[in-house]
Structure formats: C-alpha cells, structure tokens
From TrEMBL, chains A, B, C, D, E, F:
Residues 158-296 form the HD/PDEase domain. It is an enzyme of class 3 (hydrolase). This is 3'-5' exoribonuclease YhaM. Gene3D superfamilies: Hypothetical protein af1432, Nucleic acid-binding proteins.
Length: 320, 320, 320, 320, 320, 320
C-alpha cells in the first residue's frame, strides 16, 4: 500500500503507514491517564498526532528524529487535521523509502543552480561577473544555498525554496529590465541574486525550520550586506583590483532597501530605479506564491472561499 | 533655428521661438505696473512666463489656446524654471510646425492599438474574446482610448499614456501568467485591459489634463465597472447568449480591487490570484515609470541626487 | 411550560423545550466515544449544544433545518453559553409554534415599508420621487428589501434589519437636513434610502446570514451603484425622459462615499454636504445600535462592565 | 455708498469705505522703499492690505484697534484676496456704524441663552436641573459663555459660536435620544451642555481669537472637568446635599471622552451609550458646519470645485 | 518542608503545601462528572488549579479568600502552568505564615516613603516644598500611596509598585536634570512625584488588582489633576497665600502630557522641557522594568528566546 | 566693535562686521536689475543676505569660502531673519579672528575624548576593553570622530556633536545601568559608544553638513555594523584570539535596533534589556537636546510660545 503524503490526508481517513517522528511528548490528561503527543512528518509536511491510553514504554520505544509505523485515523479538531493513533512502532531507517521523507528536491536544486551559473557567466559587466564567480566558487556557500529556505512559514518555506525564489526573480528581472530604458538589467539581476542571501544564516534549514540567534538579533538584510562584503574582499584578493565603490554602494543599497518600506524592515527606502524595481518584483513573486499556497492548503471543502487569514486580512476565492 | 522643447530648457537660456499659449492673465504688481502672467506649452510640457511692463494691448493681441512667438530668457525662481519675456507676438497656426505642439504620438497609439487588437483576438476563451471585441468595435470608445491619459500628473500623464500603460501591463501579464500554475493568464490579461478604462471618463484629456465631475464624484474604479456592464450588455445582445456570471464577477473584482488596499481606493481587497497579480504588476509599472520621470525631470545639476519629493518621502539617486 | 428564548438562557438552567436544528455533526472524542455537536436556534438567536455518548441512530433521527425537542442543561464554557443534552427527539413542524422560530417581524417590516413609501411619495423633487417609485414598484426588489439584513453580525444583523436601519436614517435626515441651510434635505433622505441597498445582494439573509460570492468579490457599495443604474434605466424608460446627469452623479457619490474614509471601503471621500452628513448620520445610528447590542447581550453578571471587545478596543459600562 | 463686507469682496473690486484696523506694521521693501502692511477687519472677517510708498507719518496717523477709511483695490495674490491701498485715513468711532464691526450677534446670543435656560429648567432629573442652575446663576460664567467661541479657526470660530454649537447639539440630542431606548436623553443633553465649556478658558475671544496659556498647557477637556467640579461644589453647598457620585462620573466621562478617540485628544474612549452618542452628534455638527464654511468662503469662480484643503484631504463640490 | 512560591513552581512538580484560595468554582465536565476550578495564590502570584472527580462537599468545605492545604502536581497546559489536585483542605489563618501571603513589602515601602519625604523636604522652591508637604501630611493619602500599584498587569503591578516607580523616577530626575541646562530639576522631580498619583484611585489594590469605575470612566491622568487641585487648595488654606498660577499650569501640564502622545492617552503633547523629559524618563523605567519581568517570568526552558509577546510584537533574548 | 554672532542677531539691527562667505549667487530680479544672494556664516550659524543693485564686479571680488566685511541691516522676512547689505568687501584670512569662525570647540572635544578613553580603559570585560582600544588606537578613526556631527540639522548638528552625544549617553548608561539588576552596564555603555559611529561616514562634516552618497544609500546603522566588523577583525588580529560570537551578535544588535522601531529605520526591534535601554536613553537625550535648541533659537519676541514646528507637531512653551 503506497503512503499518503501528509498534505494529501483528508478528514476521517484510516492510516497504516510510516512517518518521520519530528517530536514526541508524554502528557497526563485531566483524568490522570497518560497519552502521547507527537509530530509526524514526511517530505510534504507535518501533522499532529495523539495516542490515548499510552504508557511510558510506548514513549520509550520510539525515537525523536527516527521513523515510526502508525495505525490510526485522521480527524478535524478545531479546524486543523490531526491523527488519533491506535498503534505505533519504531522503524529502522532501512525500512523506509528515503524519498518519502526528503523534502529537498535535489534535481530541481541542481537545475536551478545551473541556471544561476549560466546567468552569472553571461553577465557583460566584468565586476558583477567576477563578484558572482566569487560567490559561486565558494563550496560552503553553494551547499548552504542549495538547501536554504526563503522563510520559516509563508512562501517558499522549504529547503531549496530560497534558490527557487532567487532564480525566479532573476529570470523576471531579465525579462522586465529591458522594458524600462533607465534600468540597468544586469545590476537588477545581480540585486535579485543578492537580496535574500542573508537568509542562509538567518534561518536554520536543517530539521524544523527556525530562526537562528544571529537571524533574530541581526536579520537577513544586515547579514546579506556582511556576506557581500566578504565576497567583495574575496574578489579583490583574487582579481588584485579594487571593486568599484559606486557599484558596491548600489549593491548594498539593493539589499538594504529591498523590503521597500521602513516598517517592513528596510533601513533605507529604495532610491535607485533598480532598487524600486527589485522591491516590486520580489513582492509580486512572494505574494502570488503565498496566496497560491494558502488556496492549495485550504481544507474547507464545500465552500468557494478559504478560511479567513488574519495575516492578509481576508478570505481567498477558490475557483473550481 | 530649431525650437528647444520645454523639457529641455535650462537655466539662463536665451529664447526666440514659438509656443502654444496655454493661459494668459494680466496682473498689477506692487508698484502699480502691469505684467503678463502666461503659460507657454509645447508637446513636451508647460512653463510659466512673465512679461514685465506690459500693457493691455500686449494682453489683447495674443489668444489663449493660440500660438505665440516669444523672445526672452529662462531663470530658476524658487526651484522652478520660468521665462522672463521681453517680447511676445501672436502667430497663425500656419506659422508653426504642428508636430512641435501635438503631445499625442499618433503612430505610437496606432501601434499600441494594433498590439491590443492582436492580443484580444488571440484569446482562446470565447467569452473574453467576444467581450474584448464588444469594446474594440465601439468607435467612440476606441477614439477616447487612443487619447486617454493614465493620470493628471505622475506616471503616463499624457494623451496616449493610458493605452501605453494598458498594453504594457498586458504584455507583462502574458509573460508572467504562465510562470504561476494557478493563474489564468487570459483572465489576468483581460483584467489588465480593463483595470484603468474608467480613466477615459475620469480625466479630461483635451487641453489641460483635469478631473471631470464624474471622475471626482464617482472615480475610475466604479466608472470602469459601469463600462464593463455596458460592454457585457452589448456582448449579450450581439451574441444572444448570457455572459457567464462567475466570469463577470471575477472581471468586476479585478477592476474593483486593483489598487490593492482599501486606503488606496479599492473598495475590496484582491481575493483571487489574478487580482493579487494584477495589482502588483500595475504597481510595478507605475512605480518604475514614475521614478524614471522624477529622475529625468530633475533640474539640480551638480548633485548625484534629485530634490526631495514629499509624495515619495525621499530623494532619488541619479547615476551618471 | 413556555419556551425560554435562546437569548434569555442563563448559566446552569434546565431545559425541556423545542428548538430549530440549525446544524448537526457527529464527532469522535479523544477516548473514541461519539458525541453530537449541534446548533440550536429560535428567532432570538443560536446556541451550541453537545450530547455525549450519542450513537449513529441519534444522529440519523434528527433533521438539519427541522425541529427538535431537547432535554438538558446550560453551562458556560470558555466564556460562552452552551447546552449539554441528555435527550433529543425529532419534532414535526406542526408540533411547534412557528412564531417562536421566525426571526423576521413581518408587522414591523410592513410598517417600515409604509413609512418608506410615504416619505418617497411626499418628495417634491420629481426626479427623486419618480426614481423612488421605480424602486418601490419592483416587486422582486421589495420582497428582498423586506427580508434584508444590514450585516452578518454587529448592528441590525437580522432579516428586516436593513429596512429598519434605512427608514431610521431617512427620518433622522428629515429632521436634521433643515437645520443646515446648505443641505438639500430630499437629496440627503434619498441618499439614506440608497446607501445600503447593495446589501440585499451582498448578504444572503435566508438561513444563516452569510456573504454571497458577489458580495465578497464586488461589495455592497459597487452593487448599490449597479442597482441605482438599473432603477434609473427603468425610470427613463417609464418616463421617456432622461434622468438629470448631475443628480445621478450626486446619488452615485452618496453611495460611493458613505463609509466616509478610504480605509473603510469608500473609494471616494465625501465631497458634498449631503455626503458628509449621510456618512455621519449612518455612523451615529450604527454605533449606538451596535453598542446597545453589546451591552444587552453581555453575560457577565456581577460587574458594572461588559467583557472587553477587541473590535471596539474597550469594555462598556452597564448602568443599572 | 453702503459698505461691502470683507467676506463679500471679490477680485479686482474698487474700495472706498471704512474698516477696523486690526493690525499695522511698517516695512522696508527690497528697493529700500517703505510700505504699510495692515489687517483690515469688519464683523464678517479680516483681510490683508498693503500701501506702497508709505512714510512714517502714514503709519503714525492710524491707530491699531481704531477705525480707518480706505481707498484702494482688491487683487488675488497667491490664491488669497488682498487690498492695495492708495489712501488711508483715521476715523473717529462716531464716524462708523458699530453694527458693521461687531462680529458678535447679541440678539442671537440672547435667544440661544433663553433656549438653554428653558431646556435646563425643563429637566426632570433634579440633580441635573440643580447643577444646570448652578452654572446658569453664575454671572461671570454666563457673560463668558455668551461671548465664547468654539474654535480659533474652522467651525463656529466667532464670539457666540460656542453657545450656538452648544444649544444646537442639545436640540439634536433632545430629538435623537428618545429614538434609542437605552439612551438617557437628559444625561445626553447635559453632556452636550458641558462638553465644550472648557473652551471659555481655552480660547481668548477678545480681540483676535487665540489660545490662552492654560488652554495650550492643559486643554479644554481637562479645564471642563475642573469647571464641572466647581459647579458641583456650588450645587452641594447650595443644596446642602451630595451630588450622586455615579452621576458625577458619567458627566466627567462625557466631557473626557467626547473627542471619541485617543488620537483626537480624549484621554478615555466613550464607554457609555450617551458618550458614544454625544461624540457622534458633536462630530456631525462640526463636520457639516465646517464643510459649509469651506464651500461658502471659496473664491475659485469658474469651477464646480473648491480649492484642495489639506486639512480634510480633498476638494469639495460646489453645486449651483 | 518550606513552601515553594507560585512563581517558582516548575512543570511536573509535586505539591503538598498551603495557598490562599483566591477563587473557587464547581463545574460539570463533558461526561457529567463534577470538578473544582480554583485560583491558588501566595504573595508571589496566582495559579489555576483543578481537582477532578470532586463533589459538592469538597466545594463547600473551602472558603473563597481563606487558606487551603493542597496535594497535587503541576503541569503545563497550553503553555501555562496549572495544578492538578488530588486533595484539598481548609486551613485556619493561624495555621499559615502570614508573610507567605502578603504581597506587600512593608519595609521597602517605608524606606521608599522616607526617601520621598527627604526629597520633598530638600526642595528649595518654597511652593513645591509646601505643596509636597500638603500631600505628605494627608494620612489617608499616605496610606493609599503606600499600598498603591502602578498597573493591573505589566510593570510594577503589585501593592507598593506605585511608590517604588515614583521614587525611582524622582531619583533619575535628580541625576539627569542638572545635565540639561534648560531643565528645572525641582520642577521635573515634582512632576515625577505627581505623574501617576491618580492611579491610587484608578486601580483598586485590595484583593485582586482591578480598575475602579472612576478609573475606567475618567482615568488616572484627569484624576491626578483633580488630586493636585485638592492639594493646592489645602496648601493655600494652610499658607494663606495663593499658589502661583504659572507653576500650577506647569504641574498640571506635567501630569496631563506625561504619556507623551495623544494616542497613548495624553490629551496634550509635552510642551515644556520638563514635560518632554518626564515622559521619556517614565517610558525608560517602564520599558526596562516590563521587559525584565517578561524575561524573568518566561517558562520556555531550552531556548534562548522567550515566547512571542503580541503586546510588544517580539520575542526577547534570554542570555545565560 | 565686537562681532555679533549670527545666532544673536535680532530684527532691525545695523551690521558692520566680518563673516565667512558660505555661498554667493548673482540673480536678476523681476525688473531686470541684478542682486547678490549670499550665505553669511560664523561659528554660531548661517544667515541669508541680499545686496540689491549689485553688479558683476561686486560678485567677482568676493570668494566663496573666504571672508567678507559687510555693512547692512537685518530684517525679518516671512518669519526668518535675513540681512540687506549696502556694502560688501573681501577680507584676507589674516584680517579675521579665526575663533569667530571655527564652529568646532577643540577643547571640549579633547576633554570628551579623554573621558571616553577613561571609560573604555576602565571596562572590566576584557573583550569590550580590547575592542574599544582597537577603535581608539585607529588615528584616522579618532580624527573623524573628533569632528563628527550627530545630525545635519536638529540635535547635536555641529562638528563635535557626535562625540558629545556619545559620551553623554555613556555617562547616563553608567548611572542607570546598575539601577536595573538584569542590565549588563558595560555592554550597555559599549552599545552607547557604538550606536551612532556610522554617522562619521554618513554625514560629511567638512563645510556645510550634508549626507554622503554612502550615507543615503546604506545609512549609518549598516555602516556602523561594517565599522564594528572591521574593528573586531583588528582586535582578533592583534589579540590572536577570536572575539566571542555571542558578544558580537549582541553588539551588532545594539547598533541595529537602537532606533527602537522599524518605521524609524531599525531593521530589528530591541530584543535585549541593553538594547531597549539604549534606545530609550538615546531618545531621551536627543529629544531634550532638540527641544532645548528649538526654544533657544526661537525668534518670536513677545510670546510665551515658540512658532509651530511641524516636525514635532506643536509649539513649545518658553518660560521666563
């Protein structure tokens, strides 16, 4: 029997399959009985599960971060899907198909990386091309970039999401730039490449997505400027030539202003054509991607509308 | 001697050429002397002019809306360029080159209209294609659309600007739509076609650009919905078939929500993927176009920065 | 034993009476037992009820939308009143008193309609009077208006509430208009008549109050303008005379601007004396009515103050 | 030749009549010549005037606060009407008609006072009636109330304006109160009486309207509470009976919350039905009165629209 | 066995000790069983407790406001610590150590009072010193001030907290005042003394902290001005001399403006150097104290960060 | 005759003294006459001057940036003081007293630097002390810090102002830190040292104060983080030891969050006790200093109130 992905589970469905055990806790209910409170995961997502009338041995025999075989049934509780288990057992890593649990799509990442390398190598501006190579020749950077996520929740919130978002923006910049005479398309594309790189250090993409201390204390915008500074130093050492100061300031400005407004965390407002363009292209991609995911993940069945989402202050229309 | 366009005038420049007389007034200065206060125009823009020590015959001999020959010199007064005239004379229409004064670029408009017709005729959705033809077969609509402006000031504020902005958006939609699986590209393109049509009735594009009473009392968003209603009625009569209600609601929603937020005058927030996409594509084009025009029209010479613009809360960087 | 209305139920009260079954669901609790989750209604309101240890036959024997006889007891759970049932049975429509369940007060509606007809017929402005008659002679419109609600929750949220709110506003306009010399009282009264008519199509008042697709995608303000357009067309056809354009624009403006500010969903700000007056009179009636209902429906017994209401950012004082 | 009132002056009008000299200054222009900069007033308003080529004797012969005879001509300068004088002379008080210069309409004030006394004396609530009499029997209070203004600019900004606004509100409260069952009409009316009394001490209504130090440091809301405290003390001494504490708190609350929102200077939000009603009735009267005055004082001749007013963020429509 | 303070309880801890019974309720659970819902308190704080399978005699034998002996175990439920009891018994007042339950630290209060008296007596300004003595010689005022709280929750929310906050501010003012030449240090210190005195009447500090009717209807800012008025009257009677009016206005202004902005409840903006200083010094003390308490009371164990606090829109970093 | 400082000039004052010529322009007036438009400066400030009826030789004989001797008279024009010149002559540098023109107070700067060195050297935390020395041993940094300004206008807007503001904050931190148990006083003091250092590169303090390109494109907050990174690199190279990562993050956070809110340009909100304290201490010093300077520079003579300042939304009270 093939597994059903977490995101494809529906209300009232019987389950008899494997999961990754993202978290386990043992709790005492109001009548004094013990139960397990678990988080079950696969590559598509995470779901909460409970097993009533459990005892300490049930808790001990399963490993946080390991794999489990579960028997039970889904139900909707307060608007969210959860699983009520009747049995759970530990599984060895050899007993599962790793592709069921690896959220990261290596093929897609490699393809995106190839596209990225291609765009960087085809830049005519020698400083941008050289600086791009300084980034791309850094193995440690590349391996983090491949796995990076663009967010903890909301849009592109999965390993590989950052790369996908970055390359998408660069392609849109490549199309839109030449439509506006005053815009330097290569500078705009390079801004798209740089704009969210700080997220590599802001969000820990191994295990559960979460913000790092550095991410919370400093934020990806300032981290991105720091990473740019390191790459420019590497370029200058390698090229034995100063990187042009005006170009550096424009690149820093593209990172620093890409949220578009102070209240969204940009310490400076976009003040160049490329900066205003980058902000709006980023916003466009983020908003469409995020609305798509809200519509796709909506569970309300017999309605034309999703639930109300406070973060966007509205319901969305689901057309057939 | 060829004319210098209004937008190409600089400080301290001698003038000896023709203008359109957009406005004329006679005033008394603090010492009791009379002077002329004029607005001189050509296809590129408008400039204020004064002639000191004028008398009533100077005022009488020139016609508001007619052409004049001017001798004088430019100067910057309180940050704006103006002209101090030493002589002014009436010119017959036959004495000027009409192409100097016609702000409207008929060739560009015809090309844009052809592109628009092409995009409409290539739609696969029969209702959208039929509805598009209902608009395009309305001679009166087409002649207004050709001359329409997208704004009184700011971006695309010239006869033909509305059509330019509309076709630009439709082309961007054609490129971006297919990148997002959930988006109906034809619906999005049609939304781009419709979104600002109400401006035809909101802004009077003959003579000085100005808002109509209907424009100020009702606004282009509601007018656009009214125009859509008329076109649907025309389609239904012609096709002898009802226009699908769901499709109508989605088109109305695209118009109604395209400003993106209530405080920008949209009575509803974007609630479909196409609506959120249209808003951001519109915003992107408007912002880049408007920033470009602020940079191009900036007069400060020896600075890397434009003046401070309160409407956007910043100065813009002018790169060489 | 007479029924106790839903809104008059208090904590810890025994129940043995009829309800309308607004909704029924069967659920499984954490220990695997089944229970019924129900919504019980009468003309005064709706209350949630649970019956523990139920089985499928309990669920099958009662009809959603039908009537039931309930035995049980009320309790406060997380600040809201609910009912715990010990027995439930189906009731035939003949076994209940319909007046207990009909939220709509037909007598009050007819009286309000009569007042409305009276005010319309006494208008001196022939165009407004004629347009009013075009509305009032439309049977389908009248039957929807009689049952319409002014909101899904908050003020006047019941069938007939729209008519009540409309006629109330018109009477206040009739009193206040003449106190302000510049105000056209008849125009103001007609604006009050029109301002919320779009809610007839925005909110479905049959069964549970809920927004229609049209309501959510287009909104009552734009719908109201569309309804006005249809009525003007009817007037013109009937009178064989054009409706004055300036008057039409003013009426459209009254609808379009009556929320008073862009961020409250008005695409235009009030720009005529009648528009600013209508907005404030509407606001006054809505606020007093809504505060009254918050005070009346408050359950906290031994306090001078209601609960904190986030929507208005405060508690209200309940005087004895 | 009868005088033309200041507010009825139009552009390009010859003048040969009396004014009150509200202010006089002598200035040196850029060419070293001296000129007079004056403020001319009558009961309807104030206008700026200049007399070029003046000398010290011109300046000396006229008295600030006295009367002058002026010959000259009006003109619009930067959107505002001003007068260019060719002659000016001192006038004795006996040479003018005082009714031309007295902005205060004593008859209207007496009539409003009579209405006020009548409403207070007809209150059924003995405490409110008694407290009202404590105010009305204070000669010093009455003489200030008669002359008080409701604002320095904007609505009701003239001696007598406060009384007019107060009595108007009380009458509206008398009509609206009984329409809302939960509202205590007499309490609401008394709140209307009290709400702006602090303005008597906040604004100096003698000569040019201006804020007092106390007005700017403490504000009319807190001053109003202080005045209420004094009147209650007077009542208690007179009646030899305590004023009920709950009633006192409600009256204080009506004053304190009548601006409706913290950001408009109310330290508490309206939390009683009377308080929310009073705020909206006050707002309604203030807004209609202020918009009326903006329309009436607009100078733009050949337009359907007033100038843009930044304080309300819009132009207003002037219908014929 | 020594008691563990409420604030020192941790998850999964066994309990066998005394508490004050702040509240008791008997409830019926979903299976029809009864349980007790209690609030247990000591001087450090309050915690919710439940005893399952209780009966009416359990409920009857314990007294609200009395003392109880409890046996049970703590657990975290939905992020908050609670206690599940297995036994509860009534305790006589003689069986507990009162110092465990008295939240008020009398020694600290007396010390703070002494500091306050000292600072007042050392003022050189005779009016401020005299006015301060008028306050300090009022026994009833002093006994309320000793016990007053600065807030219902958030910073300094305990009996004695108001005095602590007041004296702290005065000391900071004493240090900072002389650093700024234009600042009148004694006036600033006296403003710090006055600024929150109205909280004595705004918040009831006996039993559970809660707002009084007067507090909610009028607010501590206006109450503070009233208290100042009474003290000035006392001073004038005692000294047989008028208190200087300018000084009175400045003191009133310090109270009235100390929240710094209208939207934070100050009806006037700070307009003197002392007022702007007082606002910022108050804000500084309140913010540091409140952030400290959020960090100290955080329960999340194995994290560097507290929970997200919506009131401040962030998590806080907990360093080791 | 001793010079009168620019800031001590009053209306109607005769002048016969030296100035630095900050700027010179020659203009043509409306009657065709030429005049000089000048900026005259000394150490206290700058004032605009005009000389009517000038010719090209007047313009040529004086040097921008040089010194001039002026004869003329002050006058108030549109609320600002200006000078009307009757004569102007070039002065050699040897003819003026340099101390009249040097805005920078070298003695005060040296004293502040000594205080700063002292505080750094007395830090107990070896990393902070070492890092501080890395800054202080950088000659180029010190010479810029000595002359740096904290703003282009508003508070501390003069060469040396940055150092003054920095040392002031550190002293306040030294006093306040120990009052709050959770606060690390040395970390707080070091944050005060760092917080505005980026202004050294943001604002060009030579000649007229103005923002650099780097300042406008990147901003002092991000520049400050870059400077900290360089100093840490210098420390690590010198000490041959890694700077602790947690400490680095906290220092970066102090810089990044010190504006306190996103909308004031901080990309992160203060999340440590030291960060929230630093923000409020900075704000306190900036606000008192800026209000003091608004009061001191106010020209309105016979009023208790300054002009209205839109930037702070109020007038300020000037006490005698």
């Amino acid at each position: 029997m093939p597994r059903t992905l977490v995101t494809e589970l529906t209300d009232g469905q019987s389950l008899d399959q494997s999961f990754r055990l993202a978290d386990k806790q043992i709790r005492v209910n109001r009548q004094g009985g013990k139960y397990l409170l678990l988080k079950l995961a696969d590559r598509s997502g995470t779901i909460v599960a409970m097993m009533w009338n459990a005892d300490d041995s049930d808790y001990e025999k399963i490993r946080r971060g390991g794999y489990v075989h579960c028997v039970g049934r889904t139900q909707v509780h307060q608007g969210a899907l959860q699983v009520i288990l009747t049995a759970i057992d530990d599984l060895a890593e050899t007993e599962v198909d790793p592709s069921d649990f690896d959220q990261f799509d290596a093929g897609a990442a490699d393809q995106a990386l190839a596209t990225l390398r291609d765009m960087i190598e085809n830049l005519h501006n020698v400083y941008l091309r050289g600086l791009g190579k300084a980034f791309l020749s850094d193995e440690s950077f590349i391996s983090k970039l491949r796995l990076g996520t663009a967010a903890v929740s909301n849009h592109h919130a999965y390993p590989g999401g950052l790369l996908r978002h970055t390359v998408d923006l660069m392609e849109v910049c490549q199309f839109l730039g030449p439509r506006y005479p005053g815009v330097d398309t290569e500078l705009l594309m390079f801004g798209a490449f740089l704009h969210d790189l700080g997220k590599i250090e802001e969000i820990s993409a191994s295990g559960e997505l979460s913000y790092t201390d550095r991410g919370q204390l400093v934020g990806h915008i300032v981290i991105g400027v720091q990473m740019l500074g390191d790459a420019i130093a590497a370029f200058e050492e390698d090229a034995d030539e100063d990187f042009p100061n005006d170009l550096r300031l424009q690149l820093e400005h593209l990172i620093v202003s890409h949220h578009g407004q102070l209240e969204f965390g940009s310490p400076r407002l976009p003040a160049t054509l490329e900066a205003i363009a980058l902000h709006h292209i980023d916003n466009l991609d983020a908003k469409i991607t995020s609305f798509t995911s809200l519509i796709e993940s909506d569970l309300t069945n017999n309605e034309n509308w999703t639930n109300y989402h406070p973060s966007i202050g509205r319901k969305l229309w689901k057309k057939q």
